[in-house]
Each structure stands twice: as structure tokens, then as C-alpha cells.
Design goal:
The protein is built from 19 helices and six strands. The protein has helices at 3-22, 29-39, 47-58, 65-75, 91-97, 108-123, 129-143, 158-165, 171-180, 185-215, 217-223, 239-271, 276-283, 315-328, 358-368, 380-390, 416-424, 447-451, 462-473, and strands at 303-310, 333-341, 345-347, 399-404, 428-433, 455-458. α14 (315-328) links the parallel β1 and β2.
């Protein structure tokens, strides 16, 4: 490898590391150096090995692996150009190699042929990932090409390719094929959805690869790569993202509980009163020198928590995740009561039963939404008034009040005097807002008014949520 090649590879590596940091992965300088040292011990010719070495030295959480893989594919693509000539898949490439033939064009015959080949591949009992990636490259090259677009616009579109081929419409065909091989219908449908979902991801990856060649990998990293799941905003999460977030909630709760236990033990050791008798007795084993001090048991302080959350529209996802995390940490709190609202208040404390399945809890919360709405339009002022009328007994001078919502009240009466009364009756009050702080006060947002009464905190992703809950538990 000459000096120019080395310089280009180093530049690509540094840009890759910066993209990882921009997507929310905390890659330190030491880990960056470790990755280069580890690469020196493996074969560079095996791309999968290089990817795994990078991941082993840079990725700290499994939830970040999807984002890492997407960025790795952009900066170190598995193929270049059309991607199909070298792989021997594209009929146009084969024809060109023979000195004849024309490029395959997007037409009805080509579409029908491609859908048949794709269905046959997805129906196979053992799928070949390499062949599927070749099909994904062909699909983007033939059905996702966007020639002649204006300046600044990409020439490739995964969305267009997926709309043309519509692989989701093949599900029934795949299910029938799998069932003919003896697979039960429910298992066949689950398998078909999983296979088509995986192929869709390959198509999106190939479109990003082509755009990265056209506009540079940094452009794709900035606009097309979603941040890691713990940094992804609740308000912009897709259905698949929400499923990943739900899987992350309880491991996150366990990590938080362990961290809290350690910090409480350390704090107790520093602040608990000295047990003089036990300390002197223990010092007898060391010749009267008190090598170890003993402290009297200190009654742990735990918070009485009341949660009042907006469950309207896209805010519902944020509210559900916050409630689930608090529920998973319920032993940290002395007691907890939860209420949901849109324009009316409904208590949902009973859904958070010890040992309850999180999926069942989410289903119950979704079903309870209808009880939290009378008119179907978010009205914070009316909700606060109803809460004060019906559930004022939930608040005591020892209570922490936690409000969840975007403070968008459809230009209704805010009843800020009622919120001031509620906040004044508790030990402390917080408001978690899933919108970016720069959007507070725009449109029908009442955040500037309410934030003067209750401390309002931006909470747009799992990382910010876990940091807040950790501080709340103290």
C-alpha cells in the first residue's frame, strides 16, 4: 500500500469515527487508537472481520450496533458503482461483457420478472444473504434510479424502489410457499414479515451506499443515518424503532437500579452516623487500630411519586416509555400513582402490577386512552382542573409531581393558576417535554407559561430520560 492509499484510508477512518460520534456513540481517542491496533492483527481482506474489529473496540451497547453497521456500510461499502457487474447478476452487465445487449429498464416485464425472482429467493428454506444483497443492488439500480433530478437531489431512492416493487405485497405468497413446506401459518407469517423486513433494510443500505458515492459519505451520515436508539428522539421514532426502545427499557432500568444502589451505599458510608461500639469492637482484631469503621443503619429516603401524563398523538409514545421506566424502577420509590389525560383525567396506577408483562401494560395503557378524552383535543388547563377536583388527595407535602407532555394545548384556557396550586402543594414538581427546547413557545405551545411555574426539562430520548430518572430517585 503506497503513501497515498494510506493517507486516504486514514482520512476515511477519521471521518468514520467523527460520524459515529455525531450519531451518539461515545468513541474516545483511546478507543480510536485501539481499533487501529486491533486491525493490525487481522486480515484486511475480510470485510466482515474488519467490521467486527471496529465494533468490538468502539461499540459499548448492543442498541448502538444498528447505527454502527449503517455508518460502516457508508464509509466502507461492500461494493462500488452499480455493484452488479462484478457480481454477475445484472443482465445489462452480462450483456456488456459479451459486447452486446442493453441495460435493463424499469418496465412491466422487468418488474414482474424481478418480483418472481425475489419471491423465489425469500421462499427458500435457507436464504443466501449474499444473493439477497445482489438482488437489493439490482432493485435500487433498476427501480430506484432517479436520473435528471435537480441540483442537490440524489439520483437514487430506496423509497421509489420499494414503492415500485412493493415487497410487502408478496407476504401472502411467501406465507403460502412456507406453509407448503410444512410451516404453521402463524410461524410462516412471522417468518415472511421478518424476511421482507430484512430485505427492505438491504435496499435502504444499498441506496445509501450509492448516494455516498455520489455526494460523499459525510453527507449521508449527516442526513440519512438515524442516531443510535438511545439518542433517537421519541417524536421521530418509527414503529421498528419503538420496538427496539421497548426492548431497551428494562435493561436500562436494571442498569439504573444497580447504579443507584451503589451510589446510595457510597453516600450512606459517608454520611451515616458512626457506630462507635461496633467500630471499637472490630478494632480489637487489629491491635486497637480502627482500620474499618462501622456506621448505624440509616433509613433510606424514597420518593412518593405522582405522574400526570399527556397520552395524545405522538406524545403517547414518550409517555408510555417514561411510565414503563418509572414502573421498572418502582422499588426505588416509596409509592407511585399514575394518571393519563387528553382533556380528562384517568388513573392508570392499577395497570402497573408487580410482575406484569410490559407488553400487557402497554396494551392496557393504550386501551385506557379512550377514558382520558372527552372531546378528543388536548386541553392541559381542563386536565389540571379535573385533576385538582378529583385527585387532589394524591398530592402531599412529601410528593414529587411529574408531568409528561409537550404543553401544546390547542389555544385553550391554560388555567395556570390551577397548576400553580398543584405545584405549591407538593415537595417538588418537574415537567418533561419531548420537544426540542427551541420549539417551546411556537404555535400553540404553552411551554413558556407553564415553565415559569414548574421546572420544565427537555427529554427527547432514552439517554435524557435515564439521566432524569436517576436524579429523580434521589
Amino acid at each position: 500500500m503506497n503513501d497515498i492509499d494510506r493517507s486516504g484510508l486514514l482520512d476515511r477512518h477519521l471521518a468514520f469515527v467523527e460520524a459515529l460520534r455525531g450519531a451518539g456513540l461515545s468513541v474516545s481517542l483511546a478507543e480510536d487508537i485501539d481499533s487501529l491496533a486491533a486491525l493490525g492483527a487481522v486480515q484486511w481482506g475480510d470485510r466482515a472481520t474488519v467490521r467486527d474489529v471496529f465494533a468490538a473496540t468502539m461499540v459499548k451497547k448492543q442498541a448502538q450496533r444498528t447505527t454502527f453497521n449503517s455508518l460502516f456500510d457508508v464509509y466502507f461499502p461492500p461494493m462500488v458503482g452499480d455493484g452488479t457487474r462484478a457480481l454477475g447478476l445484472d443482465g445489462a452487465a452480462e450483456g456488456a461483457a459479451d459486447g452486446g445487449g442493453e441495460h435493463v429498464r424499469d418496465n412491466a416485464a422487468a418488474l414482474s420478472d424481478f418480483r418472481d425472482r425475489l419471491a423465489e429467493m425469500l421462499e427458500a428454506q435457507e436464504m443466501d444473504d449474499a444473493e439477497l444483497r445482489r438482488l437489493a443492488a439490482e432493485m435500487v439500480g433498476v427501480f430506484g434510479a432517479m436520473p435528471g433530478r435537480g441540483p442537490g437531489l440524489s439520483s437514487w431512492s430506496a423509497y421509489t424502489a420499494l414503492q415500485r416493487v412493493a415487497p410487502q405485497e408478496l407476504i401472502d405468497r411467501l406465507v403460502a410457499g412456507l406453509m407448503s413446506e410444512g410451516v404453521e401459518e402463524e410461524d410462516a407469517r412471522r417468518m415472511a414479515n421478518r424476511r421482507i423486513g430484512g430485505f427492505t433494510t438491504m435496499v435502504e443500505d444499498d441506496a445509501r451506499r450509492r448516494i455516498a458515492e455520489e455526494k460523499g459519505p459525510d453527507h449521508v451520515a449527516d442526513v440519512a443515518i438515524r442516531p443510535s436508539i438511545d439518542k433517537l428522539a421519541f417524536m421521530s421514532a418509527r414503529r421498528t424503532d419503538l420496538d427496539e426502545m421497548r426492548k431497551e427499557i428494562f435493561p436500562l432500568a436494571r442498569r439504573l437500579a444497580t447504579r443507584l444502589a451503589k451510589e446510595q451505599h457510597s453516600r450512606h458510608a459517608r454520611t451515616a452516623p458512626l457506630d462507635f461500639r461496633r467500630t471499637v469492637r472490630a478494632s480489637m482484631a487489629t491491635g486497637g487500630v480502627p482500620m474499618t469503621t462501622h456506621h448505624r443503619p440509616k433509613r433510606p429516603h424514597r420518593t412518593d411519586l405522582v405522574v400526570l401524563c399527556d397520552v395524545s398523538g405522538s406524545v403517547a409514545n414518550f409517555a408510555q416509555f417514561t411510565l414503563l421506566l418509572v414502573f421498572a424502577l418502582r422499588e426505588v420509590f416509596q409509592s407511585m400513582r399514575a394518571f393519563t389525560f387528553i382533556d380528562h383525567v384517568h388513573e392508570v396506577t392499577g395497570h402497573f402490577r408487580p410482575g406484569a408483562d410490559p407488553v400487557d401494560v402497554l396494551a392496557d395503557l393504550a386501551a385506557s386512552t379512550s377514558h382520558a378524552a372527552l372531546w378528543g383535543r388536548t386541553n392541559y388547563g381542563r386536565a389540571f382542573t379535573k385533576f385538582a377536583d378529583l385527585h387532589a388527595d394524591a398530592l402531599t407535602p412529601k410528593t414529587t409531581l411529574l408531568i409528561l407532555g409537550d404543553a401544546r394545548s390547542n389555544y385553550s384556557d391554560l388555567h395556570d393558576d390551577t397548576l400553580r396550586q398543584l405545584a405549591g402543594s407538593v415537595k417538588r414538581a418537574f415537567w418533561l417535554n419531548p420537544e426540542h427546547e427551541r420549539n417551546w413557545g411556537t404555535g400553540d405551545s404553552a411551554a413558556p407559561t407553564y415553565s415559569q411555574i414548574v421546572q420544565m426539562i427537555e427529554c427527547r430520548n432514552l439517554t435524557q430520560l435515564s439521566e432524569f430518572v436517576h436524579d429523580l430517585a434521589w
